[in-house]
User: What shape does this take?
Amino acid sequence: MDFFELAKGMLLSPVETFRKVKPADLGDALKYYLILLLINTVLSVIISLVAFSSMWAASSSIFESLGITVPAAAGFGIIVFAILMIFVSIFVLFIAAAWLHLWVYILGGRKGYIATLKAIAYGETPALLIGWIPVIGIIGLIWSFILSILGVRELHGMSTVRAAAAVILALVVIAVIIILVAAFFIIAFWEMMQAPMNTF
Assistant: This one.
């Protein structure tokens, strides 16, 4: 399947398409994911540059009074940041797949780490294709969440309930960890700020 046929299949008939990509190797999945990333990056950069240009046009006099007169450099910074995010996204893909695979394995998935990585890589299709659109992008995220469940189910031969439980547990546990870590730092910062006051 070429890229466009695969993307169309993931959007319109994901179950059938996941079954077709079962024989695909890691290289095929990464190539597809990289193309999605490039499309998402180009469109995101365009949106960011348009938004920055509009903001600059509306408030250029304020920026210039502050001595800020380098919109071109700022635009270049956006492009460099976007390119860096491509490499970060690929790295995160491998880490996210490992984390999800832990829960997939606990719940009975035995088709290997690559199957889990493929479920995420292909499942990210909606998020990367429409996630760059302000507001509407949330639909892509929800759609990708559902596709990840279907991908785990089809590529690991699991039930829908077990596949959904694996994906949900992976997200909930990491969310709880992030909340706990954030709460720890907030409490520590609060206590640090209170300490000087208690000395008076």
